[in-house]
TrEMBL record:
InterPro entries: FAD-dep_OxRdtase_2_FAD-bd (IPR003953), FAD/NAD-bd_sf (IPR036188), Fum_R/Succ_DH_flav-like_C_sf (IPR037099), Fum_Rdtase/Succ_DH_flav-like_C (IPR015939), NadB (IPR005288), Succ_DH/fumarate_Rdtase_cat_sf (IPR027477). This is L-aspartate oxidase. It comes from the Bacteria. PANTHER family: L-ASPARTATE OXIDASE, L-ASPARTATE OXIDASE, CHLOROPLASTIC.
Amino acid sequence: MSISPLIYDVIVIGSGVAGLSVALNLAGHRVLLVTKTPLGAGNSQWAQGGVAAAMGEGDSPELHARDTLAVSGDIANADAVSVLTQVGPDCMRRLMVLGVAFDRDRGNLCLGREAAHSHPRILHAQGDATGAELIRALTLSVQQTAGIEIAEAWEVEELVADAGRVSGVIARQGAECCLYHAPAVVLATGGIGQLYRYTTNPPEATADGLALAARAGACLADIEFVQFHPTALAAGSEPLPLLTEALRGAGAILVNEMGDRFMLAEHEAAELAPRDAVARAVWRQLQAGHTTFLDAREAVGARFPDDFPTVFTFCQRHGLDPRLDRLPIAPAAHYHMGGVAVDLSGRTSVPGLWACGEVACTGVHGANRLASNSLLEGLVFAERVGQDLRGFIRFRSASVSSGLQLTDIGERALPAREDDFVISQIRDIMWAHAGLVRTELGLVEAIGQLHELEMTGAVRSQRGKNMLSVAQLIAIAALAREESRGAHFRADYPEAAEVWAHGSVWTLNALEAEKASMLREVLAI
């Protein structure tokens, strides 16, 4: 079947803060913004805590960089961290000009403090609705910018390559399939939280961008590092509501059912320890048969509805009043430090392909992300991608060979609902064996079970195939890293190893070869 492609200067996939920011930075060019959700939906609008930037008295980008590196497990890219923290304050000022309304007190920015930050530097909006405010302002600007075309409710199924370069995408909306062409494609598809049974991420966080990039031959970096937020509200809903880090920054404590403040014995910073340490401490309490709670009654109390209106609202929906009740908590998959390997301009290893936001791995997080650095990374590096693309477009024609063939269009994908049961199995396997605490035995079991699902052909939708593929890649990378570092904890290798004091870089072929070798060893036993 021959389809005439629609031609653009740049195609941006994803409409969170990273995707919207890239599009805005390309004003004046013909940009297609493809999003499988309504415009602006996704992980970004769920972000509560805020954006970290050194804008307070006594603070500096150097101190912000020091804090970022300190929690990274010694493998963060120092150059990327420097870019993040140096550019951050000016990026925030540009957002304010754009119309983002950060909270203020008598004209001064309200700056909060969160875990592992040495200074108050968290800008927030409406208390705990920072992501929603950013998305509101960015979405409005995108809608008002000439040259940006929006394709809502379209899912990108494949990156199109021509002579070793990415040159477009194949996207589907229901039974309709379309070929879009551009000399530059930007992945801004967000995270992978839905690979796990318990997550704070919305339903669309299904690892699509990682799968697309891997199939196109792009290098992946640090994919074994998955961050689990320590304080998801254990309320039985899906996804689990997030109890923002800012609550602990405001003085909330963690206790078990006996009232023991267990973090005092776990880390010198107690509740303000890095996320990986707090998450594993909560997990150990749960494994020991305890029930764990976040207690903000004394620290926040009557101020809760005003200071944390988002959290207050969903607590009430679950029959809880945080002014009076301790809030039951459990860890949940929250953020992926790894992703598509990129340079400081967002370029991947494949010509024509850029990435930014959570789907990308710039190296700023290393093995563990500092609280409120995620929105900042998406914003700062989206600007850099836009700057790089403006120069690229000047020297690159948006021409395309005619008559590109799309074959078997009707068989490319089936509705995701047909895979619900198998996707549920994937999520259970990943939670049980590739979650907070990992072992060789468990990871081998996970890889074997996921491989069996792949071999049976049980997964039919493109979304399900993406999830299955990336789940296996993460488990394989986690098995290869025989140490514990940051968010990657191996119970059989509980200490960090000097030989692993670096990030990891993989290709799909290398990961598949690793899996084949492992399966041969298992079958030979």
